[in-house]
């Protein structure tokens, strides 16, 4: 069983930066594909960025060039560096791990970007 805990959210002005972290319990961290998702009020949850167990990354078009996903297998941690934040980035951000048919979600962390 994997437990995920996000941190690093908060209130920031447009143009600012935040770094989200996702700490994972459990073993075999390196086998998981990982991702960051977000859900704004009244909207569906959407993929923000994803990193495979092999380190390949992909991003939503809306965040390309501004956000960077990374992982540290030695620390059992996943990160999302968010730069040049916009009000439309406001949402609850969730980390997700998956391997085969197993998936795990964190509880979410709120990111609010003021204009």
Description:
This protein has 115 residues and is mainly beta. The chain contains no helices and eleven strands. The protein has strands at 4-7, 10-13, 18-24, 33-39, 46-51, 57-59, 67-72, 77-82, 91-99, 102-105, 109-114. Strands 2, 4, 5, 6, 9, 10 and 11 form a seven-stranded mixed sheet that branches. The protein has a four-stranded antiparallel sheet with strand order 1-3-8-7, with no helix packed on it. The N and C termini lie far apart (40 Å). 31% of the residues are buried. The model has no long low-confidence stretch (mean pLDDT 96).
Describe what is shown at a glance.
The chain has no helices and 11 strands.
Instruction: Please give the oligomerization state of what you see.
Output: single chain
Shape: globular
- What's the count of strands? 11
What is the element string, with H for helices and E for strands? EEEEEEEEEEE
Structural class: mainly beta
Mean pLDDT: 96
Show unreliable segments: none
The count of helical stretches stands at: 0
| Structural Rg | 13 Å
Strand count, sense and closure of the main sheet?
A: 7 strands, mixed
Strand content: over 45%
Into which percent range does the helicity of residues fall?
A: under 10%
Measured distance between first and last alpha carbons? 40 Å
């Amino acid at each position: 069983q994997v437990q995920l805990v996000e941190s690093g959210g908060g209130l920031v002005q447009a143009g600012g930066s935040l770094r989200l972290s996702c700490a994972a319990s459990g073993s075999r961290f390196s086998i998981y594909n990982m991702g960051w998702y977000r859900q704004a009020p009244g909207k569906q949850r959407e993929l923000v960025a994803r990193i495979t167990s092999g380190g390949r990354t992909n991003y939503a078009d809306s965040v390309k060039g501004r956000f960077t996903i990374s992982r540290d297998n030695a620390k059992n941690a996943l990160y999302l560096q968010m730069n040049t934040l916009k009000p439309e980035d406001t949402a609850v951000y969730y980390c997700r791990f998956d391997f085969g048919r197993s998936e795990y979600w964190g509880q979410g962390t709120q990111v609010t970007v003021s204009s």
